Automatic annotation (TrEMBL):
Cofactor annotation: pyridoxal 5'-phosphate
Entry's EC annotation: 2.6.1.18
Family: Belongs to the class-III pyridoxal-phosphate-dependent aminotransferase family.
CDD domains, sorted: OAT_like
Keyword Transferase: yes
Listed GO MF terms: beta-alanine:pyruvate transaminase activity
Top-level EC class as recorded in UniProt: transferase
Organism per entry: Rhodobium gokarnense
SUPFAM superfamilies the record matches: PLP-dependent transferases
InterPro entries, per the entry: Aminotrans_3, Aminotrans_3_PPA_site, PyrdxlP-dep_Trfase, PyrdxlP-dep_Trfase_major, PyrdxlP-dep_Trfase_small
Keywords noted in UniProt: Aminotransferase, Pyridoxal phosphate, Transferase
Domain of life: Bacteria
Protein name: Beta-alanine--pyruvate transaminase
Length: 438
């Protein structure tokens, strides 16, 4: 494919160095299985499942066919006070794989919308139970909860918030769980559970009765795969229970087999009150997110409203869009029929072995990993993030797509990947970092 001069100017790309990209574009024009093809005809391995979405591999005809058939049968209907069958079916299928007691699903169109919706669910729940003064949210340093105003308010990543100072008030941050003493630790670090006591400190400082919810990613994903220390999530749950604070897990990256079970909540044995999800919900084939809530949260909000009155004044034009629901249903069928969550669990050991073999490379300063997720920190260059973007570009032209956040590469192959693909990911990373040098 030829790219004419200036023909890329009109699209303002998200989270992209637009000038640099447009002077040296990297477009993907085809995808199938674990592979991508760039506009020059080169083949790449997809080392990050797109952006952690494409768990079942690219080009799944079952999903495309389901979306096509749905659009031909019924392309759209208002989701407010009317409905289409697909959203109910998808919600039932999700409830079957969600942790026990989390049985109600609210549909949105992205992870960011899921986070903002979860915050509103927490506010509505607290108000419905007569605790409307619980206006504070506890989040965490290095958290990524999307880019809408609610999610940015919760964010613990400075670049994502410093340009946007006008965000929601009353958000306080716990410390993150990465420790320089726990480098190259595979799986859950032994130390660090005491960091959950930061929640107790917030309670001691602000008063439990002012805190509505505590939100964390079970594994902090976008910031570079910070795996929770042993006992950490359990302790957060305990403190929330003691003080009547809702626990929200943001499972936008962790959900759908990435940790070896349907959700990280199940992998770590800790059940939140509210869960957000998106990305692999439709295998990336349609934009969709969702918020799943416990029976207690749902019943409290719904039962508090008078008969025939709307209980929750929230929703999007495209909540539960028929095409997205069709994609979601077909995706969950693939996960089940091909036992992809079990497959991820089975591949995890091999994947982590191979990732941690990279630790002899000078440029790598830390590796973390769990399930089919690994974060690889590189020694920064002249300024934070420069090395990351240089390496990301070199990897691409060497045949590997990897998502970078600053100087951290995040590896998350599709759950259908074979061991040979993992080997290839590692050898391209090694070769590229050797070429890069210090
Ligand atoms: C944990 C988490 N929450 C929310 C989001 C936002 O999702 P989206 O980009 O679909 O809005 C992301 C995206 O990476 C995420 O990782």
């Amino acid at each position: 494919m030829n790219i004419a001069a200036n023909s890329l100017e009109h699209h303002w790309m998200p989270f992209t160095a637009n000038r640099a990209f447009k002077s040296d574009p990297r477009l993907v024009v085809k995808s199938e299985g674990v592979h991508l093809w760039d506009h020059r005809g080169g083949q790449l391995l997809d080392g990050s499942s797109g952006l952690f979405c494409v768990a079942a591999g690219h080009g799944r005809t079952e999903i495309a066919d389901a979306v096509h058939a749905q659009l031909q049968t019924n392309d759209y209907m208002s989701p407010f006070a009317s409905g289409t069958p697909g959203s109910f079916e998808l919600a039932r299928k999700l409830a079957a794989i969600l942790p026990e007691g989390i049985d109600h699903v609210f549909f949105v169109n992205s992870g960011s919308e899921a986070v903002d919706t979860a915050l509103k669910v927490a506010m509505a729940y607290n108000r419905a139970r007569g605790e409307g003064q619980r206006i504070r949210f506890v989040s965490r340093e290095r958290a990524y909860h999307g880019v809408n105003i609610g999610g940015v308010s919760l964010s613990g990543m400075v670049k994502n918030r410093e340009t946007f100072p006008v965000v929601m008030p009353n958000v306080v941050l716990m410390r993150h769980t990465w420790s320089p003493n726990e480098r190259f630790v595979r799986g859950q670090p032994e130390g660090g559970a005491e960091l959950a006591e930061d929640l107790q400190r917030m309670i001691d400082a602000y008063g439990a009765s002012t805190i509505g919810a505590c939100i964390v990613e079970p594994i902090a994903g976008s910031t570079g795969i910070l795996v929770p220390p042993k006992g950490y999530l359990e302790r957060l749950r305990e403190i929330c229970d003691t003080y009547g604070i809702l626990l929200i897990f943001d499972e936008v990256i962790c959900g759908f087999g990435r940790t070896g079970k349907a959700f990280a909540s199940q992998s770590f044995g800790v059940t939140p009150d509210i869960m957000t999800m998106a990305k692999a919900l439709t295998n990336g084939a349609q934009p969709m997110g969702a918020v799943a809530v416990s029976d207690k949260v749902y019943d409290t909000i719904v039962d508090a409203a008078p008969e025939n009155a709307i209980e929750f004044f929230h929703g999007y034009t495209y909540s539960g869009h028929p095409a997205a629901c069709a994609a979601g249903i077909a995706t969950l069928d693939i996960y089940e029929n091909e036992k992809l969550f079990e497959r991820a669990a089975a591949l995890s050991d091999y994947f982590l072995d191979k990732m941690f073999e990279l630790q002899d490379i000078d440029l790598i300063t830390d590796i973390r990993g769990y399930g089919l997720l690994a974060g690889i920190d590189l020694a920064p260059g002249a300024a934070p993030g420069l090395r990351g973007s240089e390496v990301q570009t070199r990897l691409f032209w060497n045949g590997l797509h990897v998502k970078f956040t600053g100087d951290c590469g995040i590896i998350a192959p599709p759950l259908v990947a074979e061991r040979s693909h993992v080997d290839e990911i590692c050898s391209i990373i090694r070769k590229t970092l050797e070429e890069t040098g210090h």
